[in-house]
């Protein structure tokens, strides 16, 4: 049996405008590196954190609480030490806590000889997400664990639908270097939505999913709309409207808040368009003198991988 494993846990975009808390896709290249060792010292603990800072206390660390949840369902006499090279900034809106939670449970599952299927790991990883955001949701976790686009039909019981991904679809993500904690950007949301807005959103989500199946980029563009969340949250993101208009004017199929922000994502048809869209999206932050990261990524169809 192997006693250590290194994995790449990718970043992800949740909500995708029309699917708050249910829709997400997985990114290439950007992600955390997680190294887990199984040893004889019982318990789950952090051995080393490099890169962006995250809590080292196991009770406050999303990776540790997620692994603890797994070990409640599959007891082991061994302990696990976790080292994370944190490359996704916490509070950036591209699934930082999801990468660590999903990555850690994935690695421990490998070390235990794979007692759980990838989808079954979501229940444990969600414990990490709940620590970070105050609520259980799997819209970042599902694409990280399963790859591609995913729809979370239910979290209790867990029921995930893997969706097809049109071949030419490319994501552009801009991350202004400010921190927006999910717990705070969820706190400003109202519990109730109007029936009229819910109807519009249902139409958009259904149409978007159909467009993924049929490679209908025009329909995708018409349905990448957020009637429910964007109006409340976009005010927390500097220059959101300007960036969104810039992306659409350069031919993006759609543009919206990535997860709970502050990152903004756009989807485009083809790499060339995605790059042009990226230049337009960066312009307002250049003028403002606000530091940012720009990622241009195809959709990662595999999700987490062992290195
Ligand atoms: N669906 C979540 C939200 C994603 O928007 O709050 C962020 O974790």
Report on this structure.
This protein is of the alpha+beta class and 307 residues long. Strands 1, 2, 3, 4, 5, 6 and 11 form a 7-stranded mixed β-sheet that branches. A 4-stranded antiparallel β-sheet has the order 8-9-7-10, with helices on both faces. A hairpin with a 2-residue loop joins β5 and β6 (158-163). It has helices spanning 62-73, 96-111, 122-133, 141-146, 182-187, 195-214, 217-223, 230-233, 240-249, 271-288, and strands spanning 4-14, 23-39, 44-51, 79-86, 149-155, 158-163, 169-176, 254-257, 264-269, 292-298, 305-306. 49% of the residues are buried. The mean pLDDT is 96. It folds into 2 domains: 4-163 and 302-306, Ribosomal Protein S5, domain 2 (2-Layer Sandwich); 169-298, Alpha-Beta Plaits (2-Layer Sandwich). Residues 14-15, 20-21, 133, 137, 139-140, 182, 186, 259-260 line the site of L-homoserine (HSE).
């Amino acid at each position: 049996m192997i006693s250590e494993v290194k994995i790449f846990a990718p970043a992800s975009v949740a909500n995708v405008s029309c699917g708050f808390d249910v829709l997400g896709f997985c990114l290439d290249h950007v992600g955390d590196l997680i190294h887990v060792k199984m040893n004889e010292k019982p318990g789950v603990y952090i051995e080393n954190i490099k890169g962006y800072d995250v809590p080292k206390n196991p009770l406050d660390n999303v990776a540790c609480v997620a692994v603890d949840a797994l070990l409640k369902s599959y007891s082991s006499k061994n302990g696990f030490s976790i080292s994370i090279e944190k490359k996704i900034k916490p509070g950036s809106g591209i699934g930082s806590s999801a990468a660590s939670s999903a990555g850690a449970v994935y690695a421990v599952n490998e070390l235990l000889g794979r007692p759980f299927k990838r989808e079954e790991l979501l229940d444990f990883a969600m414990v990490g997400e709940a620590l970070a955001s105050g609520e259980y949701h799997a819209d970042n976790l599902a694409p990280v664990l399963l790859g591609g686009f995913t729809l979370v039909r239910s979290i209790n019981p867990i029921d995930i639908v893997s969706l097809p991904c049109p071949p030419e679809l490319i994501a552009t993500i801009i991350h202004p270097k400010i921190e927006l904690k999910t717990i705070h950007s969820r706190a400003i949301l109202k519990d109730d939505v109007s029936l009229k807005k819910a109807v519009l959103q249902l139409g958009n989500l259904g149409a978007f999913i159909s467009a993924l199946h049929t490679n209908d980029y025009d329909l995708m563009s018409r349905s990448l709309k957020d009637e429910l969340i964007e109006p409340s949250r976009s005010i927390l993101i500097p220059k959101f409207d300007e960036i969104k208009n810039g992306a659409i004017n350069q031919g993006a199929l759609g543009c919206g808040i990535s997860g709970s922000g502050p990152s903004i994502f756009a989807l485009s048809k083809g790499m060339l368009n995605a790059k042009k869209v990226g230049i337009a999206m960066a312009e307002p932050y250049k003028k403002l003198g606000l530091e940012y990261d720009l990622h241009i990524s195809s959709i990662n169809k595999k999700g987490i991988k062992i290195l």
